[in-house]
Amino acid sequence: MIEVKNLVKDYGGHMAVDHLNFTVEDGQIYGFLGPNGAGKSTTMNIITGYLGATEGEVWIDGHNILDEPEKAKKNIGYLPEVPPLYIEMTVDEYLNFAAELKKIPAGTRREATAEAKKLAGLNGVEKRLIRNLSKGYRQRVGLAQAVLGMPDVIILDEPTVGLDPKQIIEIRDVIRSLGKNHTVILSSHILSEVSAVCDHILIISHGRLIASDTPENLEKKMTGEKMLELLVRGSAEAVGEVLDLAVPEREYHLEAEEDGCVRVSLEMAEDVRESLFFAFADQRLPILAMNLQRASLEEVFLELTGEQGKEEERNEGDL
Ligand code: ADP
Ligand code: MG
User: pTM surpassing 0.70?
Assistant: First the structure.
Protein backbone atom coordinates (compact mmCIF):
# COMPACT_ATOMS: atom_id res chain seq x y z
CA MET A 1 0.00 0.00 0.00
CA ILE A 2 1.19 3.51 -0.77
CA GLU A 3 0.15 6.42 1.37
CA VAL A 4 0.75 9.96 0.23
CA LYS A 5 0.11 12.44 3.00
CA ASN A 6 -0.11 16.18 2.56
CA LEU A 7 2.55 16.19 -0.13
CA VAL A 8 3.86 19.56 -1.27
CA LYS A 9 6.51 20.44 -3.85
CA ASP A 10 7.30 24.09 -4.11
CA TYR A 11 9.67 25.01 -6.92
CA GLY A 12 10.70 28.40 -5.64
CA GLY A 13 7.21 29.83 -5.31
CA HIS A 14 5.60 27.61 -7.92
CA MET A 15 3.48 24.91 -6.26
CA ALA A 16 3.91 21.89 -8.54
CA VAL A 17 2.31 19.62 -5.93
CA ASP A 18 -0.14 21.28 -3.59
CA HIS A 19 -1.09 19.28 -0.48
CA LEU A 20 -1.79 16.01 -2.17
CA ASN A 21 -3.37 13.14 -0.21
CA PHE A 22 -4.21 9.69 -1.53
CA THR A 23 -3.83 6.00 -0.81
CA VAL A 24 -3.03 3.31 -3.33
CA GLU A 25 -4.35 -0.14 -2.38
CA ASP A 26 -2.58 -3.34 -3.32
CA GLY A 27 -3.28 -5.27 -6.46
CA GLN A 28 -5.03 -2.61 -8.49
CA ILE A 29 -4.20 -0.50 -11.50
CA TYR A 30 -4.31 3.21 -10.74
CA GLY A 31 -4.45 5.93 -13.33
CA PHE A 32 -2.85 9.23 -12.48
CA LEU A 33 -4.57 11.59 -14.83
CA GLY A 34 -4.03 15.26 -15.45
CA PRO A 35 -3.13 17.78 -18.13
CA ASN A 36 0.50 18.60 -18.86
CA GLY A 37 2.05 20.47 -15.99
CA ALA A 38 -0.44 19.09 -13.45
CA GLY A 39 2.33 17.69 -11.27
CA LYS A 40 2.21 14.00 -12.21
CA SER A 41 5.92 13.47 -12.85
CA THR A 42 6.88 15.51 -9.81
CA THR A 43 4.60 13.38 -7.60
CA MET A 44 5.91 10.14 -9.10
CA ASN A 45 9.51 11.27 -8.64
CA ILE A 46 8.78 11.96 -4.98
CA ILE A 47 6.94 8.65 -4.41
CA THR A 48 9.87 6.74 -5.90
CA GLY A 49 12.44 8.63 -3.86
CA TYR A 50 14.09 10.47 -6.78
CA LEU A 51 13.05 13.88 -5.59
CA GLY A 52 12.61 15.35 -2.14
CA ALA A 53 9.30 16.87 -1.12
CA THR A 54 8.95 20.32 0.38
CA GLU A 55 6.41 18.98 2.85
CA GLY A 56 4.48 15.81 3.51
CA GLU A 57 5.17 12.10 3.69
CA VAL A 58 5.22 9.05 1.47
CA TRP A 59 4.87 5.58 2.95
CA ILE A 60 5.46 2.44 0.90
CA ASP A 61 4.24 -0.73 2.58
CA GLY A 62 4.80 0.89 5.96
CA HIS A 63 8.26 2.28 5.14
CA ASN A 64 8.78 6.00 5.02
CA ILE A 65 10.59 6.92 1.79
CA LEU A 66 12.86 9.35 3.66
CA ASP A 67 13.63 7.32 6.76
CA GLU A 68 13.99 3.92 5.11
CA PRO A 69 14.66 4.64 1.43
CA GLU A 70 16.25 1.26 0.69
CA LYS A 71 13.37 -0.74 2.12
CA ALA A 72 10.75 1.50 0.56
CA LYS A 73 12.39 1.55 -2.89
CA LYS A 74 12.94 -2.20 -2.89
CA ASN A 75 9.21 -2.65 -3.44
CA ILE A 76 9.00 -0.25 -6.37
CA GLY A 77 9.85 -0.46 -10.03
CA TYR A 78 9.84 2.87 -11.85
CA LEU A 79 9.70 3.88 -15.48
CA PRO A 80 10.38 7.62 -15.41
CA GLU A 81 9.14 9.99 -18.11
CA VAL A 82 12.59 9.86 -19.70
CA PRO A 83 13.98 6.39 -19.01
CA PRO A 84 17.67 6.45 -18.04
CA LEU A 85 18.89 4.17 -20.81
CA TYR A 86 22.54 3.66 -21.66
CA ILE A 87 22.29 3.62 -25.41
CA GLU A 88 25.78 2.24 -26.02
CA MET A 89 24.82 -0.96 -24.18
CA THR A 90 22.98 -3.92 -25.61
CA VAL A 91 19.61 -4.78 -24.09
CA ASP A 92 21.15 -7.65 -22.13
CA GLU A 93 24.07 -5.56 -20.90
CA TYR A 94 21.73 -2.84 -19.74
CA LEU A 95 19.34 -5.19 -17.95
CA ASN A 96 22.22 -6.99 -16.22
CA PHE A 97 23.54 -3.63 -15.14
CA ALA A 98 20.08 -2.63 -13.87
CA ALA A 99 19.82 -5.96 -12.01
CA GLU A 100 23.12 -5.22 -10.29
CA LEU A 101 21.93 -1.76 -9.27
CA LYS A 102 18.75 -3.32 -7.91
CA LYS A 103 20.92 -5.73 -5.91
CA ILE A 104 19.29 -8.79 -7.42
CA PRO A 105 21.51 -11.69 -6.30
CA ALA A 106 23.89 -12.88 -9.04
CA GLY A 107 22.44 -16.39 -8.91
CA THR A 108 18.94 -15.28 -9.86
CA ARG A 109 19.91 -12.45 -12.22
CA ARG A 110 19.61 -14.47 -15.41
CA GLU A 111 16.19 -15.70 -14.42
CA ALA A 112 15.04 -12.22 -13.39
CA THR A 113 16.18 -10.55 -16.63
CA ALA A 114 14.62 -13.34 -18.71
CA GLU A 115 11.31 -12.82 -16.92
CA ALA A 116 11.44 -9.06 -17.45
CA LYS A 117 12.34 -9.42 -21.14
CA LYS A 118 9.50 -11.85 -21.70
CA LEU A 119 7.01 -9.55 -20.02
CA ALA A 120 8.15 -6.48 -21.93
CA GLY A 121 8.29 -8.38 -25.23
CA LEU A 122 12.02 -7.99 -25.81
CA ASN A 123 12.85 -11.48 -26.93
CA GLY A 124 14.87 -11.38 -30.12
CA VAL A 125 16.53 -8.00 -29.53
CA GLU A 126 18.69 -8.93 -26.51
CA LYS A 127 21.96 -8.49 -28.39
CA ARG A 128 21.07 -5.22 -30.10
CA LEU A 129 22.47 -1.89 -29.03
CA ILE A 130 19.79 0.23 -27.40
CA ARG A 131 20.78 3.15 -29.65
CA ASN A 132 19.61 1.13 -32.66
CA LEU A 133 16.20 0.32 -31.24
CA SER A 134 12.98 2.13 -32.18
CA LYS A 135 11.24 4.38 -29.69
CA GLY A 136 8.72 1.62 -28.96
CA TYR A 137 11.42 -0.91 -28.20
CA ARG A 138 13.37 1.53 -26.07
CA GLN A 139 10.21 2.07 -24.06
CA ARG A 140 10.02 -1.69 -23.61
CA VAL A 141 13.60 -1.74 -22.35
CA GLY A 142 12.61 0.93 -19.81
CA LEU A 143 9.61 -1.16 -18.87
CA ALA A 144 11.72 -4.31 -18.51
CA GLN A 145 14.02 -2.36 -16.18
CA ALA A 146 10.99 -1.26 -14.14
CA VAL A 147 9.59 -4.79 -13.70
CA LEU A 148 12.99 -6.37 -13.13
CA GLY A 149 12.95 -8.32 -9.89
CA MET A 150 9.15 -8.15 -9.90
CA PRO A 151 8.61 -5.43 -7.30
CA ASP A 152 5.14 -5.25 -5.76
CA VAL A 153 4.51 -1.77 -7.07
CA ILE A 154 5.20 -0.65 -10.61
CA ILE A 155 5.05 3.05 -11.43
CA LEU A 156 4.98 4.13 -15.06
CA ASP A 157 5.15 7.78 -16.08
CA GLU A 158 3.32 8.30 -19.37
CA PRO A 159 4.38 4.89 -20.67
CA THR A 160 2.76 5.32 -24.07
CA VAL A 161 3.98 8.78 -25.04
CA GLY A 162 5.59 8.74 -28.46
CA LEU A 163 4.39 5.26 -29.37
CA ASP A 164 2.34 4.40 -32.41
CA PRO A 165 -1.20 2.98 -32.00
CA LYS A 166 -0.07 -0.63 -32.35
CA GLN A 167 2.66 -0.16 -29.76
CA ILE A 168 0.17 1.56 -27.45
CA ILE A 169 -2.13 -1.45 -27.59
CA GLU A 170 0.80 -3.77 -26.89
CA ILE A 171 2.02 -1.75 -23.90
CA ARG A 172 -1.54 -1.58 -22.63
CA ASP A 173 -1.77 -5.36 -22.74
CA VAL A 174 1.49 -5.60 -20.80
CA ILE A 175 0.11 -3.20 -18.18
CA ARG A 176 -3.09 -5.23 -17.89
CA SER A 177 -1.13 -8.42 -17.33
CA LEU A 178 1.09 -6.67 -14.78
CA GLY A 179 -2.04 -5.59 -12.95
CA LYS A 180 -2.93 -9.20 -12.22
CA ASN A 181 -0.06 -9.62 -9.76
CA HIS A 182 1.14 -6.11 -9.04
CA THR A 183 -0.01 -2.71 -7.99
CA VAL A 184 0.43 -0.46 -10.97
CA ILE A 185 0.29 3.33 -11.11
CA LEU A 186 0.47 4.86 -14.54
CA SER A 187 0.20 8.49 -15.44
CA SER A 188 -1.29 9.97 -18.54
CA HIS A 189 -2.73 13.21 -19.81
CA ILE A 190 -5.15 11.24 -22.00
CA LEU A 191 -8.33 10.05 -20.39
CA SER A 192 -9.10 7.16 -22.74
CA GLU A 193 -5.69 5.83 -21.95
CA VAL A 194 -6.37 5.39 -18.24
CA SER A 195 -10.06 4.52 -18.45
CA ALA A 196 -9.14 1.59 -20.72
CA VAL A 197 -6.89 -0.15 -18.20
CA CYS A 198 -7.34 1.33 -14.73
CA ASP A 199 -9.43 0.16 -11.79
CA HIS A 200 -9.17 3.53 -10.16
CA ILE A 201 -8.54 7.05 -11.45
CA LEU A 202 -6.93 9.92 -9.57
CA ILE A 203 -7.39 13.20 -11.41
CA ILE A 204 -4.95 15.95 -10.57
CA SER A 205 -4.79 19.51 -11.76
CA HIS A 206 -2.37 22.19 -10.60
CA GLY A 207 -0.90 19.79 -8.09
CA ARG A 208 -4.22 19.17 -6.39
CA LEU A 209 -6.35 16.05 -6.32
CA ILE A 210 -9.69 16.91 -7.83
CA ALA A 211 -11.27 13.47 -8.15
CA SER A 212 -10.58 9.91 -7.07
CA ASP A 213 -12.87 7.07 -8.03
CA THR A 214 -13.47 4.13 -10.34
CA PRO A 215 -13.95 5.07 -14.01
CA GLU A 216 -17.58 3.90 -13.77
CA ASN A 217 -18.36 5.98 -10.69
CA LEU A 218 -16.64 9.02 -12.10
CA GLU A 219 -18.77 8.75 -15.17
CA LYS A 220 -21.95 8.34 -13.11
CA LYS A 221 -21.15 11.07 -10.61
CA MET A 222 -19.99 13.69 -13.00
CA THR A 223 -22.40 13.18 -15.82
CA GLY A 224 -25.51 14.25 -13.95
CA GLU A 225 -25.94 16.90 -16.61
CA LYS A 226 -28.02 15.07 -19.12
CA MET A 227 -29.28 16.71 -22.26
CA LEU A 228 -32.35 15.64 -24.17
CA GLU A 229 -32.30 16.17 -27.90
CA LEU A 230 -35.40 16.08 -30.02
CA LEU A 231 -36.06 16.36 -33.71
CA VAL A 232 -39.61 17.59 -34.27
CA ARG A 233 -41.39 18.26 -37.55
CA GLY A 234 -42.96 21.72 -37.33
CA SER A 235 -42.12 25.39 -37.12
CA ALA A 236 -39.79 26.73 -34.46
CA GLU A 237 -42.63 28.88 -33.21
CA ALA A 238 -45.05 25.97 -32.76
CA VAL A 239 -42.41 23.81 -31.15
CA GLY A 240 -41.44 26.60 -28.76
CA GLU A 241 -45.07 27.06 -27.71
CA VAL A 242 -45.42 23.38 -26.85
CA LEU A 243 -42.19 23.45 -24.83
CA ASP A 244 -43.24 26.58 -22.93
CA LEU A 245 -46.43 24.82 -21.86
CA ALA A 246 -45.07 21.32 -21.27
CA VAL A 247 -41.81 22.18 -19.50
CA PRO A 248 -42.22 25.83 -18.46
CA GLU A 249 -39.24 25.97 -16.12
CA ARG A 250 -36.77 24.36 -18.42
CA GLU A 251 -34.20 26.13 -20.55
CA TYR A 252 -34.08 24.96 -24.12
CA HIS A 253 -32.40 25.68 -27.38
CA LEU A 254 -34.04 25.51 -30.80
CA GLU A 255 -32.49 25.23 -34.18
CA ALA A 256 -34.58 25.19 -37.34
CA GLU A 257 -33.41 22.68 -39.92
CA GLU A 258 -33.85 23.18 -43.66
CA ASP A 259 -36.29 20.30 -44.08
CA GLY A 260 -39.06 21.86 -41.93
CA CYS A 261 -37.85 20.23 -38.73
CA VAL A 262 -36.65 21.75 -35.51
CA ARG A 263 -33.82 20.44 -33.42
CA VAL A 264 -34.44 20.93 -29.71
CA SER A 265 -32.00 20.47 -26.88
CA LEU A 266 -32.96 20.90 -23.27
CA GLU A 267 -31.52 20.06 -19.91
CA MET A 268 -32.98 17.01 -18.27
CA ALA A 269 -33.27 17.30 -14.51
CA GLU A 270 -36.00 14.68 -14.35
CA ASP A 271 -37.32 12.54 -17.13
CA VAL A 272 -39.80 14.50 -19.26
CA ARG A 273 -39.73 12.27 -22.31
CA GLU A 274 -43.26 10.91 -21.94
CA SER A 275 -44.92 14.23 -21.21
CA LEU A 276 -43.13 15.77 -24.19
CA PHE A 277 -44.24 12.93 -26.40
CA PHE A 278 -47.91 13.51 -25.55
CA ALA A 279 -47.63 17.30 -25.62
CA PHE A 280 -46.22 17.26 -29.15
CA ALA A 281 -48.64 14.55 -30.24
CA ASP A 282 -51.58 16.68 -29.01
CA GLN A 283 -50.45 19.48 -31.30
CA ARG A 284 -49.90 16.98 -34.13
CA LEU A 285 -46.19 17.81 -34.20
CA PRO A 286 -44.44 14.50 -34.74
CA ILE A 287 -41.25 13.76 -32.84
CA LEU A 288 -38.92 12.10 -35.34
CA ALA A 289 -36.05 11.45 -32.97
CA MET A 290 -35.44 11.63 -29.27
CA ASN A 291 -32.01 11.17 -27.82
CA LEU A 292 -30.70 11.30 -24.27
CA GLN A 293 -27.14 12.59 -24.14
CA ARG A 294 -24.87 12.12 -21.21
CA ALA A 295 -21.62 14.00 -20.92
CA SER A 296 -18.77 11.60 -21.63
CA LEU A 297 -15.95 10.97 -19.21
CA GLU A 298 -13.79 12.97 -21.62
CA GLU A 299 -16.06 16.00 -21.24
CA VAL A 300 -16.04 15.57 -17.47
CA PHE A 301 -12.27 15.55 -17.45
CA LEU A 302 -12.10 18.65 -19.60
CA GLU A 303 -14.63 20.39 -17.42
CA LEU A 304 -12.74 19.50 -14.23
CA THR A 305 -9.36 20.52 -15.55
CA GLY A 306 -10.29 22.90 -18.36
CA GLU A 307 -10.69 26.12 -16.41
CA GLN A 308 -7.36 25.62 -14.79
CA GLY A 309 -5.78 24.76 -18.09
CA LYS A 310 -6.97 28.09 -19.49
CA GLU A 311 -5.54 29.86 -16.49
CA GLU A 312 -2.17 28.27 -17.19
CA GLU A 313 -2.25 29.44 -20.81
CA ARG A 314 -3.02 32.97 -19.71
CA ASN A 315 -0.17 32.96 -17.25
CA GLU A 316 2.21 31.75 -19.90
CA GLY A 317 0.96 34.49 -22.23
CA ASP A 318 1.65 37.08 -19.55
CA LEU A 319 5.29 36.17 -19.24
P1 ADP B 1 3.24 16.70 -15.41
O2 ADP B 1 4.13 15.51 -15.27
O3 ADP B 1 1.86 16.49 -14.86
O4 ADP B 1 3.20 17.23 -16.80
P5 ADP B 1 5.28 18.03 -13.84
O6 ADP B 1 5.30 17.33 -12.52
O7 ADP B 1 6.35 17.69 -14.80
O8 ADP B 1 3.83 17.87 -14.49
O9 ADP B 1 5.35 19.59 -13.59
C10 ADP B 1 4.49 20.26 -12.68
C11 ADP B 1 4.80 21.73 -12.67
O12 ADP B 1 6.07 21.95 -12.07
C13 ADP B 1 4.89 22.35 -14.06
O14 ADP B 1 4.32 23.62 -13.99
C15 ADP B 1 6.36 22.40 -14.33
O16 ADP B 1 6.67 23.47 -15.19
C17 ADP B 1 6.95 22.62 -12.95
N18 ADP B 1 8.30 22.01 -12.80
C19 ADP B 1 8.61 20.72 -13.02
N20 ADP B 1 9.93 20.48 -12.75
C21 ADP B 1 10.43 21.67 -12.34
C22 ADP B 1 11.74 22.10 -11.92
N23 ADP B 1 12.76 21.25 -11.84
N24 ADP B 1 11.89 23.40 -11.59
C25 ADP B 1 10.85 24.27 -11.64
N26 ADP B 1 9.61 23.94 -12.03
C27 ADP B 1 9.39 22.65 -12.38
MG1 MG C 1 5.09 14.44 -16.69
Answer: yes
